[in-house]
Amino acid sequence: MENIKLCFIGCGNLGCSLIGGLLANGFPEKNVCAVDLSESQRQLVSERFGVEAIADAGQGLKDADVVILAVKPQSMQQTVTALATMLAKRQPLVISVAAGIETAAISRWSGFEPAIVRAMPNTPSLLRSGAAGLFANSRVEEHQRTLAESILRAVGMTIWVENEALLDCVTALSGSGPAYFFYFMEIMEKTGIELGLTEEQSRNLVLQTALGAAKMALESDLDPQELRKQVTSPGGTTEKALAVMQEHRLEEIIRLAIEAAAERSRELARTLGEPH
Ligand SMILES: NC(=O)c1ccc[n+]([C@@H]2O[C@H](COP(=O)([O-])OP(=O)(O)OC[C@H]3O[C@@H](n4cnc5c(N)ncnc54)[C@H](OP(=O)(O)O)[C@@H]3O)[C@@H](O)[C@H]2O)c1
Predict the structure, then answer these.
(1) With a 6 A CB cut-off, is 52 part of the ligand 1 pocket?
(2) 15 CB less than 6 Å from ligand 1?
(3) Which CATH homologous superfamily contains domain 6-167?
(4) What pTM does this model have?
């Protein structure tokens, strides 16, 4: 891994988080090259991380073993098309973090089938607490899988899916998932205020409870259902609250919401992958 040369195409929020995470894990800065169109972003990247930050993607790709595509999905077609000749010549592993861009679209824009790992990370990656689903196309070799995994692990946990269509499910679960938990927190906070707490008191209690519950679920040998049962005393307050949630079909609402997100992910992939 130490001798591997990485080239980031696009160094905004996610690109910077990945670089920061890799360097913090001991990856040598001399082996990272950051390519970004924005001059201010290049300056920020070279000052913050001490890595080479340039505008010319061709130069960045010259000796790269891994190219990480971290531009907005809408910029992917133009970006990949511009890199196609260099990709064909150098044959690096391509890692794409662009939401909704399928590996087939990247191959089509490249004019050949590169070794591609497509990752679907989420926003907590910016705090190195992300969760990402990874898919490798058939050109990816075993050592490249390991490489891609260690790069994405710099900003959180990873899982592999063997069928690319499952990335729509990853998108619906962990990609959009932070917003579901934020919504839950938002509603709990509002209700706490309505019941008489100050905004600060209510928010602090809710956020710490969310953190504590996630920590317990992560660290315990018990699954979330069992943990829930353990804190639900017969005839108590928790039992009463959960009964109201069940009566109003919370489970069905959440299931429908996640299914709708997965369907929207499929629709977006179709639109983003079309020629434009
Ligand atoms: N942020 C997240 O938490 C997150 C989570 C999951 C997935 N993602 C994915 O990660 C990708 C990047 O997201 P982001 O939030 O990091 O976006 P961002 O902050 O907008 O960063 C993208 C950067 O790439 C630059 N750029 C655009 N075209 C380029 C090109 N052809 N060559 C070099 N640089 C180029 C942009 O410069 P200009 O601004 O000058 O165009 C910008 O600085 C997206 O595809 C997104 O779907 C992000």
Answers:
(1) no
(2) yes
(3) NAD(P)-binding Rossmann-like Domain (3.40.50.720)
(4) 0.93
